[in-house]
Amino acid sequence: MRRTCRADSQIKETHVSDEFPEVAPELAPPAQLPWLRRLTARLLGRGLSGLKAQHRDSWFLGHANGQRSGHTQGTREGFEQGRVEGFEAGRQVLVIRDERDPSPGVPGQDLNLFDDWRLPLTAELKKRFKADVAERLPGTAQPSAAQWKLIFSDTPSTCVVAGAGAGKSTSLVLRLLLLHRYLGFELDAMTVVTFTRESRKDFIKRLLQVFGLWQIDLNQAQARELVRTFHSRILPWVRSLPGFGQLRAFETLGSDLAEGREQDADSNPFDLRLNDAQRQQMNLCYRDLLHGSPRFAELIGQMRREALQLKPLDPDHPDVQKRVQVTQLAATRDEELCDVIEDLWFAAGAWPIKGIEPCRDTVDIRGSTFHVHGRLEGLDSWVMLGFDPTESAQYQRPGAKLAVRAEWAVKRTLFQAFCDKPLIWLDNYAAAKRLAASLAGDAVAGPGFEFKVKGELAAAPLLDAFIGASNFIENLGLEVNTAVAALRFPPGDSDALFFEALALYSQALEAHLLQQSPPVMSYNRMFALFSERNPENLRLLPDALLRPLAHLMIDEFQDVSPQIVSWLRASLAEIRRRGPQMHTGRNAQHSSLMCVGDDWQSIYGWRGSSPTFFMAFTKTFLSPSHTRVMLVENYRSQQAIIDAAEHLVRGTPAIAGKKATAGGPAAALALAPVVVLDRDEAALGAALSRHYAAGDSVMMLFRRGVDKSLISEHINDVIEADAALAPAQRRLRQLTYHSAKGLQADAVFMLGDCVYPTSSPYKNQVYRLAGLGRAGDAQAFDTAQKDEVQRLAYVAITRAVRQCYWHVEKPATEAVKVPRASSQVQGEQPFFDDQRTL
Fold this sequence. Notes:
CATH topology of the largest domain: Rossmann fold
CATH class of the largest domain: Alpha Beta
Oligomer: single chain
Shape: extended
Largest sheet: 6 strands, parallel
Distance between the termini: 113 Å
Helix content: 40-55%
Strand order of the largest sheet: 5-4-16-17-3-18
Number of strands: 26
Structural class: alpha/beta
CATH superfamily of the largest domain: P-loop containing nucleotide triphosphate hydrolases
Number of helices: 31
Number of domains: 4
Radius of gyration: 44 Å
Strand content: 5-15%
C-alpha cells in the first residue's frame, strides 16, 4: 500500500517499509485491492461476521497488523524516552582524553649564562646618583641620555655599541662608581678589561680622579687590580693548581716580569715579537726534536732546500726583459764580481761556511758563462753569495761603471729567469751565519733559515713562523694538531711540509716548556685549560679567583678572539653553577657582563680576532634579558672627519643603525674635508711642520716600519724640538695605524694606503674550522681581511680632531687588483678633498 502526505508545503511519497524499516517483510500489509474487489470483500466480511465465522489466515493477518502497529508505536515511544534519559545521564559522565606526548617527559635545558635577575636600581637611587654627578663633575662631563642608559643598565648582559670618540671610558667609570658606592658591590667582585697598555693607563687615571671626587680611598694598587687584561686574570688560575705555583708565562720570559709579577703585566695580546730568552727555549726544543724524530729531521731538510732555493722569475717579467739585454756584458765581468763579493764576505767573517764547499762551477745562461761560489754538501745545490744590505750601495769595482749592488742585481735576475738547476742564494751575512751554525750540527742555534708560508707578506725564521701559525690557530679556539689534521693542500705544496712539522714541534714545545723549573706555559694554553672544552678544570678554582669575573666590563670587545669568548662563557657558566653560596654574605650577587665596542674598529683579524661575537652578542652570551645601548655622539672629531671615515666602511658588514654625529665642543668645530694626496714624504713633512709650528698636536701614522724612517728625515726638526719638551707638553706622536687606536690629535697625517695584497690558503681553512665567515665562502679569512682594510683606514682617520691628510701611493698595474681602502674615496663628496693625479 502506498500513501502520500503533505508537510511544509512539500509532497513526500513514502513506503510503509521505508517509514518503518524495523518491521519484518512478512509482517508488512498487503497492497491495496481494486475497488470492486474491495466492495465484495467488505459485504462478504459482514456476513461472515454475523455468522461468527473464523478464518484462520485472516486471524494471522490481523495478528500481524496488531503486532506491526504495537511494535511501531512502542519503538517510537521507547526511542523518545530513552533519548531523554540518555541525555540526562550523559551530562553526568566525565570524559577523559589522554592527549599527552607518548614519549617520556624530560625537563628542558636552561642554557643561559646568567640568572634571571635585575640590578636593584630604584627611581630614588637613580635620581640621587644623577644629582651627585651633576654636583661633582664639570658641566661638560655630564652624561648624555644614551650614556645614562649604559650606566643604569639593570639586565644581566649589556651590549654597548660605542663609536669613535663616544666617551665610553667616563661612562664605564661612573658605572663602577654606581655599583661600588651606591649599591655596595665589593671591588673584588668586579673587573674592567682593557686591551692595551695605554688604554689601561688612561682608564686607571680617570678612575682614580672620579673616585677621588666621592672621597673613595682607592689607591694605585687597588685600581690596577680592578682594571686588568685577560692575560693577567688567567695566570693566577693556573698557579692555583698543584705543581704550578711558580708557573711562568712563555710570553714574559726574559722580561723583568719573569720573577713572578706577570699578574700585574700590561701585556699586549697583539705583540708578536720574540726575545732571546724565548728563542733559547724554542731552539733547545728544536735540537731535541731534530735528534729524536727522524720524520721531523726529514721535513726540516726538505723545507731548508725549498726555502733557500732562488725563486724562479718569469722570463717575460719587465725586470728580466730590461736586464737580459746586458747578459753577455755581465758574463765577461762575472768572475771579477765573484771575487769582490767573496772579499766582502771574508772581511765580514761570513765566508767560507762549514758545510758549503767553495768552488767556481760554471752555469750557462742564454749561451753566456757565469760562476757560482760553492756547493751545498748533501743537497746537490749550488750556492751564490749576495750583496749584504749593510754594505754601501755606492761601492764599486775599480774601473766599473755600475755599483756592485747593481751588477749583483742583474746577475740575480738572470739566474732567476734562466737557471734550471737548484740554486741557493744567500742574501746577507746574518742568514749565512745561522745556516752555517745549523749545517755544523749546532741545532741550539735553530734551523738557520727563513720560511714563507703562503699568504704571509714576508718570510720569517722557521721557528718564528711556527709560533705565528700556532698562535693564529689557537686564538681561533682550535687545537693545533686537530686543525693541522683537517688542512688540505695540493700535491707537492711546501705548506704541507710546514704544517706537518708544525704539529710535531708544537706538541714538543709545550712538553719542553712544562719540563722547565719552574714550568713555563703559553697564555694560549692557559685559556684553553679553562675553556668550554675543559669545564671540569673550572671546578678546581676557589671562589676568590672566580669572583672578580662575576661583574665584568670589557672594553674594545670587537677585538676579542674565539678563544677568549670560549673562556668567558665557561667562566660565567661556572659562576652560575655555583649558585648563591658563592656570594653568601656579600652585596654583589649573581653575575653580569657589559661589553663595549665598535665593530667598525675591529682591526686585528690577522691575529684571529673577529667582530662576529660582538655583532651577534645576544647569541654569543645567552641571557634571560639583555640591554643594547647605542652611543652615536662623537665628542672628538668635527663632522666632516666622521662622515669621511664612515663612508669608507659603509660596504662592510656592520651593526645596523649606526650614524655618528659630532657632539659637545666637537660639534662647533669648523668643517674641513679629509685631504687625499699622492704619496710625497717631503710635502707631508712640510705640512706637518706647519701644523706643529701653529701649536697643533700632530700624529704621524704609517703602515710599515720602513715608512717611519722615510718620513723622519723630513720632520727631523719637529722630532728634535718635541723631544726637548717635558713629556706632558709634547705634541708629536709617531705610530702605526694599529697602535693609534684610542688616541687623538688636532691634525693627523697618514702615510700609506691600507691594502690586503695576498691570500692565505691555510687561514681560509682554519677560519672555516672555527665557524667564522659566511656559509659557503671558501675564502672566509680573505673576505674578512678585505673588510678589515676599510676598517683600518676608519680607525686612522677618526684619530683626527680638526684635520686629516692621507698620502697614498699609486696602485701598481697588477693583473689582479688588490683591495685598498683609498679606492672607496669619492672626491665629489664634500667630506673628501681628493687631490690625487690620475
